[in-house]
Amino acid sequence: MHRRNLIKGFIALGACPICAQAARAADTHWGYDGQEGPEHWADLGSSNFVCSGGTQQSPIDIADAVRADIPDIAIGWHEGGGTMVNNGHTIQINMPEGSTLRRGDHVYELLQFHFHAPSEHHVDGSAFPMEAHFVHKDTRSGALGVLGVFLKPGRANESFADLAAAFPAQKGEKVEIADIDPNGLLPASLAYWTYEGSLTTPPCTENVDWMLAMEPVEVDEADIKRFTALYPMNARPVRAPNRRFILSLG
Q1: Domains, the chain, ranges and CATH?
Q2: pTM summary value
Q3: Which of the listed residues 12, 214, 217, 230 has the most CB atoms within 10 Å of its CB?
């Protein structure tokens, strides 16, 4: 999930107890295969210990969810400019301040969103072609709230198509985007699953409130291929649920 640019954003915003640890992890070379792959992340640095030693790791397979009286999600994202960067692990769009997600008495500020292929979370044992992660920070506690949205081939999606057309091809390359509307990547329904988990990249810190939209969003298959041409596989395998409750609103 979050990367070096997100960490810089945390430091600027303050109130982030994991920033120093996360910054060290970001400086460690890691990837998705071989000796730098997910099963070896904990061996790459002491700050990554929880990647193997944690008990609330993400992603997981969404199965046997419990219907519960959980708060609705209210989105207050604003259209505007931002920076899209190829950070060597994904394509990430860093957002300006002001966009929020509310759930109950929690208010989260949108920091960035990025993509994984295939989806990191599974649903009843099956993955989707892609998953978007909208990364937020709780304005009071500093904990993270991530909204995951599954992407599947279908009708063209204008918001995703505009981004895909400008994906920076080289690691470290940045593109300034004058007009980003993240709302275009939301499904019609915000029914969702939720559980307590972790970052899906080093240092795998377990401070994430996960919210996963049940309804996938259709995007043009050609635009999916524009992403997978750069990152054909950047998904951490599912982790053990370890008796965690997966709650659903639907």
Answers
A1: 4-249 (3.10.200.10)
A2: 0.89
A3: 217
